[in-house]
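During the reporting period the student researcher (J.K.) took over the structure-prediction task from the postdoctoral fellow and processed the backlog of single-chain submissions. One of the processed entries is reproduced below for the supervisory committee.
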Amino acid sequence: MKKSLLLMVLVCLGGKTILPAAEPATHQPVLVSVHGAWAGGWQMKKVAPLLEAKGWKVYRPSLSGLGEHFNTARTDIGLATHIDDIVNFILFEDLHDVILLGHSYGGMVITGVADRIPDRLSRLIYLDAFLPENGENVMALRTPGSLDVENMIKDGFIIPSWVKPDWHFPKDVPHPLKTFTDNIVLTNPARTKVPATYILTVEPGKKPEEDAFFPSAERARARGWPVVIMTADHVPHWRLPEATADLLLNIR
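J.K. obtained the following structure tokens:
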């Protein structure tokens, strides 16, 4: 007999009416991804359906002035603006037990979010991302020679050579400089209680210590976090979506 029919059947035993036992509810993992500099939520569009096919719910918001919001870009957008973006997104969507993933610059953002609303988070995932301490900024965390930001600055934005106005959508766009120079402010020790995992992407043929984000991975290791080495370039969620999805599914 089909389950739908079973639910309609009342079995009378000893004068008591007994309903079939309800099946236990299953927990749906909720992922909120935070993209890196110049990018947008679009970078996770290939991974999201793969995770959702496994029962996850995936949100991929774009930060102020970036992605589909590039038309609202302003020079006064700073790190605190982007932290507010994700805090408010989680609050307005009323999300709980969030797996919060930050890629590259997004590591700065998710660290700030964890400081603000640690009770809404179940895990942090740093994907080849900055892992800051209180008072640090992106400019200071860069490894020597990794990113020549000073020669990319124009009118309050960071515009590297690969950011081209006539490129087809989706595309990278100019990134507000202030987000790189603002120091992060961390005051809530509860953020350190949120479980976290670090994924270091290492290009084929290179050693982990040659990667620009190796110092952040070592900082994560010193905190006792699991550190996963993934053979890939810096943007695996765009170029290797299946491998990225498989990795995320096995982190929990």
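The committee noted the following: Residues 27-249 form a domain with the Rossmann fold fold (CATH 3.40.50.1820).
J.K. will present the remaining backlog at the next meeting.
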